[in-house]
Design goal:
Layout (H helix, E strand, L loop, with lengths): L2 E5 L4 H14 L2 E5 L9 H7 L8 E4 L2 H6 L7 E4 L5 E2 L10 E4 L8 H4 L5 E3 L11 H19 L1
Parallel strand pairs: 1-2, 1-6, 2-3, 4-6, 4-7, 5-7
Helix pairs in contact: 1-2, 1-5
Length: 151
């Protein structure tokens, strides 16, 4: 199982889609406040469909409470468009933490400075960034592929 972390997600449709993806791939979703929506938001429910009840998820009031429960910072991977190392060059393991920032600005300097592993998803210079749900899908797909090869 991977730990997928959304730091201050803003768009309910993205979070709903990521929740559904986590159910389908057997991963845990961690959500860090503040959110740009309510968990009861109809858009979250629509994009998450009826899978939300099956989602293994946890929410935190702030990044400090989430960070406090991490035992091995070497297994925390922050996804940022400013990183230089491709996620395709990383060796993922079961239990890893894959961290994604809010849609409008990504991860804060506070979070980026807490962990050494910063990864990027290769992208054409014609595009600024990927949609958050797509980025999470890229990362989960590659990590799960690697984990299955090892088994």
């Amino acid at each position: 199982m991977l730990n997928i972390v959304l730091v201050e997600p803003e768009i309910p449709n993205n979070t709903g889609n990521i929740g559904r993806l986590c159910v389908g791939t057997g991963n845990r979703l961690h959500l860090i406040h503040p959110f740009g929506f309510q968990i009861t938001d109809k858009n979250l429910k629509r994009s998450g469909l009826d899978y939300w009840v099956h989602l293994d998820w946890k929410e935190y009031p702030n990044t400090e409470e989430w960070i406090a429960q991490i035992s091995d910072v070497s297994r925390v991977f922050l996804f940022s468009s400013h990183a230089e190392k491709s996620y395709l060059a990383e060796n993922f393991q079961d239990g890893d933490w894959l961290i994604f920032g809010k849609e409008s600005v990504g991860l804060s300097e506070l979070v980026l400075n807490q962990f050494p592993n910063h990864l990027m998803i290769p992208i054409s210079p014609l595009v600024r960034s990927y949609n958050l749900a797509n980025s999470v899908a890229f990362a989960i797909g590659e990590a799960k592929r690697q984990i299955e090869i090892v088994r």
